[in-house]
UniProtKB/TrEMBL annotation:
Lineage: Bacteria, Pseudomonadati, Pseudomonadota, Gammaproteobacteria, Oceanospirillales
Catalytic activity, reaction form: L-leucine + 2-oxoglutarate = 4-methyl-2-oxopentanoate + L-glutamate; L-isoleucine + 2-oxoglutarate = (S)-3-methyl-2-oxopentanoate + L-glutamate; L-valine + 2-oxoglutarate = 3-methyl-2-oxobutanoate + L-glutamate
Keyword list, A-Z: Amino-acid biosynthesis, Aminotransferase, Branched-chain amino acid biosynthesis, Pyridoxal phosphate, Transferase
GO molecular function, one term: branched-chain-amino-acid transaminase activity
InterPro entries linked to this entry: Aminotrans_IV, Aminotransferase-like, B_amino_transII, BCAT-like_C, BCAT-like_N, BCAT_family
Involved pathway(s): Amino-acid biosynthesis; L-valine biosynthesis; L-valine from pyruvate: step 4/4; Amino-acid biosynthesis; L-isoleucine biosynthesis; L-isoleucine from 2-oxobutanoate: step 4/4; Amino-acid biosynthesis; L-leucine biosynthesis; L-leucine from 3-methyl-2-oxobutanoate: step 4/4
Family to which the UniProt record says this protein belongs: Belongs to the class-IV pyridoxal-phosphate-dependent aminotransferase family.
Span of the signal peptide: none
Organism expressing this protein natively: Marinomonas ushuaiensis DSM 15871
GO BP term, example: L-leucine biosynthetic process
Positions in coiled-coil regions: none
Name of this chain's protein: Branched-chain-amino-acid aminotransferase
Length: 332
C-alpha cells in the first residue's frame, strides 16, 4: 500500500458558505474545486481540518469512530479561526454520505478509510489580513490506509525541546495548517542534527506534545499525561486511551509533567512512553534526547502496555469488543 494519506477516493463531499448560509452538500469529484489565487486561505491561512477513520467489521458493516468528537473539534477550530460557523449535523451527514458512497472500498483491518474534513476561507480579498473571510468551503476527502505498522513497529527517538514552541500558544487547540508548517523547520533540524524522529515540545520544561501527536507516559499501573489546557491539541485518541486505561483498572493522571520528572521516570525499566493519534493509534518512544545526552526509555523497545491499550482500542474499532462507550456510528 502507498504511503499513508497519498491515495484518495475519486469523489468527496462538498458544501460552500456564501451570502451567510451553507449550500446543500453534494458529492463531487475530488479534484473539482477551484480557488481564486487571492483566496483568504492561501494568504492568511484560514484553514482547519480533522482526521478520523471508518472501519470494516467482520460482518461487512462500516463504522466511523468518534465522529461527534471530531466534528466538535472542527467547529471549535473554525470558531477560533473566525471561519464561518459550521453546521455540525450537516457535516455529520456529509461524512456518513460520502463514506457510504465508498463503503465497498473501506479496507479490512488493520486497514481503514481515513476521513479528512477540511474547512477553508475562500473569499478573494488580499486586503483582509486582519479580517475574517466572508465565504468558505468545507469538503470531506477520503483516503484508504493500510497497516501503519507494516515492517514492524520501531520505537521512536524524540528530541525534548525546552526552548522552542510548536505553535503560537493561542493556536494550540486548533487543528490548523500553519501550525504544522511552523514546526517543520525545527523538526528538520532535529532530524539532521541528532537523528530525532520527532520533537517533543516542552517549553520551559512543560511536556506538551509533538508536531502531530499527544504524549503519554505509562509507569506501571499509572498513565500520566498533561491535563487539558489551551496550549495543545486535545486528541480524540488521547481521550479514548485514557478511558480504556481506566476501564482496565489503571490509574489515569492528567496533570503537568516536567522534563526533569520525565527523565527520572524514564530510567525505570518498566516505564513506557507513547505518542497517540488517529493515524497510528499509539507509537512507542524508545529514546529521549536532551541537551546532547541520550536517555533510554524503559527497555528502549515498544512495550507491553502500549500493545495492550492499542489492542483494546482496535478491538472496539474493528468490532471485536463491545462498543460500551458508543464510539461507533454505523454507516451501513
Ligand atoms: C491531530 C493531532 C493530534 C492527535 O489527535 P487525534 O484526535 O488523536 O488524532 C495531536 N496533536 C496534534 C498537534 C494533532 O494535530
Amino acid at each position: 500500500m502507498a504511503a499513508f494519506g497519498s491515495v484518495f477516493m475519486p469523489k468527496m463531499a462538498l458544501a460552500t458558505f456564501e451570502n451567510n448560509q451553507w449550500s446543500k452538500a453534494s458529492i463531487v469529484t475530488s479534484d473539482s474545486i477551484q480557488l481564486h489565487p487571492g483566496a483568504h486561505v492561501l494568504h492568511y491561512s484560514s484553514t482547519c481540518f480533522e482526521g478520523l477513520k471508518a472501519f470494516r467489521h467482520a460482518d461487512g458493516s462500516v463504522h466511523v469512530f468518534r465522529m461527534d468528537q471530531n466534528i466538535k473539534r472542527l467547529a471549535q477550530s473554525s470558531r477560533l479561526l473566525s471561519l464561518p460557523e459550521i453546521d455540525e449535523a450537516a457535516v455529520s451527514k456529509m461524512i456518513v454520505d460520502v463514506v457510504g458512497e465508498f463503503a465497498s472500498d473501506v479496507p479490512e483491518p488493520p486497514g481503514s478509510l481515513y476521513i479528512r474534513p477540511t474547512h477553508i476561507g475562500t473569499e478573494a480579498n488580499v486586503g483582509k489580513a486582519a479580517g475574517a473571510t466572508a465565504t468558505s468551503m468545507l469538503y470531506v476527502l477520503l483516503s484508504p490506509v493500510g497497516d501503519y505498522f507494516t515492517g514492524g513497529a520501531k520505537a521512536l527517538r524524540l528530541l525534548l525541546d525546552e526552548t522552542g514552541i510548536r505553535c503560537a500558544p493561542h493556536m494550540g487547540m486548533i487543528k490548523s495548517g500553519g501550525n504544522y508548517a511552523s514546526a517543520l523547520g525545527p523538526i528538520k533540524k532535529a532530524s539532521e542534527e541528532v537523528k530525532a524522529d520527532q520533537i517533543l515540545f516542552c517549553p520551559n520544561g512543560d511536556v506538551q506534545e509533538t508536531g502531530a501527536a499527544n504524549f503519554l507516559l505509562i509507569d506501571g499501573n499509572e498513565i500520566i499525561t498533561k491535563g487539558l489546557d489551551t496550549s495543545f491539541l486535545h486528541g480524540v485518541t488521547r481521550s479514548s486511551i485514557l478511558t480504556l486505561a481506566a476501564d482496565l483498572g489503571m490509574t489515569v493522571t492528567e496533570r503537568d509533567l516536567t522534563v526533569a520528572e520525565l527523565l527520572e521516570r524514564a530510567a525505570k525499566p518498566e516505564v513506557e512512553a507513547v505518542l497517540s493519534g488517529t493515524a497510528a493509534v499509539l507509537t512507542s518512544v524508545g529514546t529521549f534526547i536532551h541537551n546532547d545526552k541520550e536517555y533510554q526509555v524503559g527497555s528502549g523497545q515498544p512495550g507491553p502496555m502500549a500493545d495492550k491499550l492499542r489492542q483494546a482500542l482496535n478491538n472496539i474499532q474493528w468490532g471485536k469488543a463491545e462498543d460500551t462507550h458508543n464510539w461507533l456510528t454505523k454507516v451501513c
